[in-house]
Structure formats: structure tokens, C-alpha cells
Amino acid sequence: MKKSCCLSLFLLVLSSFALLAQQPAVRKSAQAAPPKPSAEKPSLDPPNINSPNREQVLKLLDLLKVRDTIKITIEATRQQVQGNAEETFREKVITFYSSPVGQKVLREQSAMVRESMAATAAGQQRKMESLMARLELRVQQLALEEQNKNTPEKK
């Protein structure tokens, strides 16, 4: 597991070297001369003839398959983290239920469930009684309406 993590990290670092390699070199003459203050908008240095343009950099990254490498690295890292999280969760659950507090929860869990069911059942019983009363009233109304339809009207 550590090996795959190290491999993922190595691939990520390796793929970033291609980006770092594209940094333009600083000329000695530009370092020696102090910049001239100007009231106007500062002008950008003309591009170096040897420096690559955007398209060339993108083409290089495509040729190096940096995007695919990063996707693979991210997916591998995601799977590893998920696997580690599940394993860690299992270990924590086992540790908890092995502890004195966990053992107490196991002993008292059935009583806790019974109490919870009793409290829930009482509330559900009240709701059911209210629902049945409304339902009975509605059935009586419908029966009365049906009875009124079937009786002939006297003029």
C-alpha cells in the first residue's frame, strides 16, 4: 500500500517536471540592468526566440501524456484513500466494540432498542388514531353523498 502511494507521488512529481522545464532562462544583461521607472504602462519584454510558445508547450504536454498520467494518478490515489478509509473504519469499529464502553453498548443495546420502539410506537399510535378518525369521517361523508344521489328528489 505504501508502495502504490509512493509510486503515485513519484508519477505526480515526475509529470510536474515537464512544467518546470518550460521556465524561461533569465539573461545576465537583464539581471545587471536595473529597471527604469516609467510613468507609462510597463512594457512586456519581447519574447525570447528560444522560448516556446503556448502551442508548443501544450503539444509537448500532450506528447508526454501528462493529462492522462495525472488522471491515472488521481484515480489511483482516490481508490487508495477509499480503501484506507474503509479499512480504518473497520478497525475503529472493532476497536470500539472491543473496549469496555463498546461491550456495555452491546449489553444494553437491546434495552435501548426496546425503549426507542416503545417511544416511537406511542407516537405512531396517536397518529394512527387521528388518521383513523379522519378516515371514518370521510367515509361517512361519502356514504351520505352516495345516499343523497340515490334518493329521488321530490318536487
What can you see in these coordinates?
With 155 residues, the chain is an all-alpha fold. The chain has a domain at 1-16 and 51-98. Helices cover 76% and strands 0% of the residues. The chain has helices at 2-20, 28-32, 54-63, 66-98, 100-150. Helix 1 packs antiparallel against helix 4 and helix 4 (66-98) crosses helix 5. The chain is elongated. It starts with a helix and ends in a 5-residue tail after the last helix.
Quick summary:
By secondary structure, the protein is mainly alpha-helical.
Distance between the termini: 93 Å
**Cα-atom Rg, whole angstroms?**
38 Å
Shape: elongated
Secondary structure class reads: mainly alpha
Helix and strand pattern: HHHHH
Mean pLDDT, to the nearest integer, reads 80
For this structure, the quaternary state is single chain
Binned strand content: under 5%
**Total DSSP helices:** 5
- Can you give the helix content as a percent range? over 70%
* Largest β-sheet summary: none
Number of strands: 0
Low-confidence stretches: none
